[in-house]
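Worked example 2:
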Amino acid sequence: MDKLAADGCNFHQAISATPVCAPHRCSLMTGKYQSSTGMVINELRMSPDHQCFGQSLTKSGYRTGYIGKWHMWANQLGQHDLIKNGFVPPGPYRLGFDGFWAAYNFNHVYHRAPYFPDDPTPHIRDGYEPNGQTDMAIRFLKDTKQSADPFALFLSWGPPHLPWTWDNVDSEHAELYRHANLPQAPNFSNVSDPDGDDWQKLPPNYEQVAVDRSGFTTRRSPIWIGTWGC
């Protein structure tokens, strides 16, 4: 990895065009703002009519690979476990990633997690999902180095996306924090944003909810508020 960084481009800073997952991914793939792609919220399907990064790579002779979360396919709110929402069929809606594919549209169960290759049969990973995805990426690199052709591999992990429960994180690293004292962030507030969506609003018993979900004591219960471009 050090040689790859030294010989290539190593970006130390990144800026997201939006803090929402699917719109951010579409901006990443097109170089356009979400107002231009039409992907202004999650659970919309990205139009393949835009000129996308994967299409440009494929046209230029690159072997492409995509591993992990996609989140630009499903066109339904919720129901992420349905195969029709998780499996992105080969074709234009893979936005030019026509090579190796081991992905799913949306999932944040990080143990025994599913993924789909080129057929709608769920393949279940053993162990912690990011570890399996990384192993798959390493195999892709080893296989690809035998060819002189250029390649582009996207490795899209689910973490640090919630849920952060003891049974959904890597047990080895979770134990490092089981008894840690994690203070609230300096800018934390227990006052809900009056203009926020319903999912953002804190319930009156938010501390107990955090304890129930995380397993921390009330004094040490971490509260994460916000969203991201995962």
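Helices lie at 2-7, 21-30, 34-37, 53-59, 83-86, 129-144, 171-174, 206-214. The longest strand covers residues 63-69.
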